[in-house]
Write a structure and sequence with these properties.
Layout: E1 2-3, H1 7-18, E2 24-26, E3 43-45, H2 53-72, E4 79-80, E5 84-86, H3 93-105, E6 110-112, H4 114-120, E7 132-135, E8 139-141, H5 143-156, E9 160-162, E10 173-175, E11 181-183, E12 187-189, H6 195-198, H7 200-203, E13 208-217, E14 233-235, E15 243-246, E16 254-258, H8 277-287, E17 296-306, E18 313-316, E19 323-327, H9 337-348
Parallel strand pairs: 1-2, 1-12, 2-9, 5-14, 12-19
Antiparallel strand pairs: 3-8, 4-8, 5-7, 6-7, 10-11, 13-16, 13-17, 14-15, 15-16, 18-19
Helix pairs in contact: 1-5, 1-9, 2-9
Bound molecules: flavin-adenine dinucleotide.
Length: 372
């Protein structure tokens, strides 16, 4: 039984079924619902992770698996190959590390000078020296629709889906909101930001949900400069606000957000009216002058589920051997859903070795983010 049908849980159910098991998937509000971390319209799929090679490899593997699934369900548009652009200051350490990892893993990329950046992407206005690292094979996943499709495909393959809430395990069994008392060989809790609510003693403080705002701005009439192929996904960790943008896709507007951690947040009851539009607009004015007066057309409040340093949590429950904990996406997990699902199915079957970085033991109460 897999509890939680977000990017991590839907893919885990998909792969557990593929490995020959009989699988039930439960979600209290439905796959990629409006409160889930996977519930927004779009998420970036990029390969750059500095020296964190495992995430580069998982992003490469996941890209392949997302595209295979979208082809199988005849919806290739759920991955938009917009490219992903990084623009660090020339001396940033992570830029050199990212290039080295790309060389080692065989990720295609282009180096761009400041002059090349300015001529290729004239929509941007940089106020300090930058270089570009461009990943042509990366892009944007249509998140909400993509997860809905993974869950639907898992069901077509034989997974049973139920819209129900599950309790924490007691003596290796669980109770659902429908009152059923359920025993299963394996329970996987892929509950995203709800994990510390389900397991408060174990995970309280170790997975910390934070409030994150996302803004969609309207582009000028007929203007295609902010849509693919002219506009890629863009990440600017050289700026302390950690801004990133996604090009206009499906006519939803130009999306902008900041990767800094917001305030603590309750995914069930948290208020989802965005308040930071002035900051987003100020940034837009500075970096994309043509959008200085763009109207806000939509906004969302989502949540990250942060571990101490940004590494995922994928481990067995310390008390119940048939219970697994899968989460801690920490603002970068969505793209990795397929690789996570595949890995969890292999771990449960004893076909993969466990990675220390994903262990519960590696999750401290400290806040020292190192994976972005
Ligand atoms: C603003 C924002 C931008 C982001 N940008 C990116 C990006 O560009 N690229 C990227 O790769 N990642 C990004 N992320 C991170 C990514 O979205 C998350 O890491 C990922 O979606 C987490 O998926 P999940 O399956 O762990 O959790 P969720 O999607 O939250 O799914 C958990 C599910 O579990 C269900 N559930 C919980 N408790 C129970 C229970 N007791 N019983 C039944 N069901 C239960 C919930 O209803 C929910 O559907 C971003 C996140 C945010 C908020």
């Amino acid at each position: 039984m897999v509890i939680g049908a977000g990017s991590f849980g839907a893919w885990t159910a998909y792969y557990l079924q593929k490995s020959g098991r009989s699988v039930a998937l439960l979600d209290q509000y439905g796959p990629a619902n409006s409160r889930a971390s996977s519930g927004d319209e779009s998420r970036i799929l990029r390969m750059g992770y500095g020296s964190e090679e495992i995430y580069t490899r998982w992003a490469m593997r996941s890209r392949e698996l997302w595209v295979d699934l979208f082809d199988a369900v005849k919806q290739p548009e759920l991955f938009q190959q917009t490219g992903a652009l990084w623009t660090p200051p020339p001396a940033e350490r992570r830029a050199a590390q990212t290039r080295a990892t790309f060389e080692k893993c065989g990720v295609e990329y282009e180096d761009l000078s400041m002059a090349e950046l300015e001529s290729r992407f004239p929509q941007f206005r940089f106020t300090s020296e930058r270089i570009g690292i461009f990943e042509p094979a990366s892009g944007v996943l249509l998140a909400r629709k993509a997860v809905t499709e993974v869950a639907a495909q898992a069901v077509r393959n034989g997974v049973d889906y139920f819209r129900q809430a599950a309790s924490a395990p007691r003596a290796g069994r669980i109770t659902t909101s429908a009152g059923d008392d359920i025993d299963a060989a394996v329970f996987v809790y892929a509950c995203g930001p709800w994990l510390p609510k389900v397991f408060p003693e174990l995970l309280g403080g170790r997975i910390r949900p934070t409030r994150q705002e996302v803004f969609y701005f309207g582009t000028p009439p007929g203007d295609r400069r902010f849509a693919p192929p002219r506009m890629p996904a863009w990440i600017d960790f050289g700026d302390e606000r950690c801004p990133y943008v996604l090009p206009e896709i499906e006519n939803r507007g130009f999306k902008i957000a900041f990767d800094r951690h917001g305030a603590d947040f309750d995914p069930d009851t948290g208020d989802r009216v965005a308040t930071g539009v002035d900051g987003a607009r100020a940034f837009l004015r500075e970096r994309f002058p043509a959008l200085a007066d763009a109207p806000l057309v939509e906004s969302r409040v989502c949540q990250y589920e942060n571990t101490s340093n940004g590494d995922f949590l994928i481990d067995r429950h310390p008390e119940f051997k048939n219970v697994w904990l899968v989460g801690g996406g920490s603002g970068h997990g969505f793209k990795h859903g397929p690789a996570v699902g595949e890995y969890v199915a292999e771990l449960i079957d004893g076909r993969a070795a466990s990675e220390h970085k994903f262990s519960l033991a590696a999750k401290t109460l400290e806040r020292c983010r190192s994976v972005f």
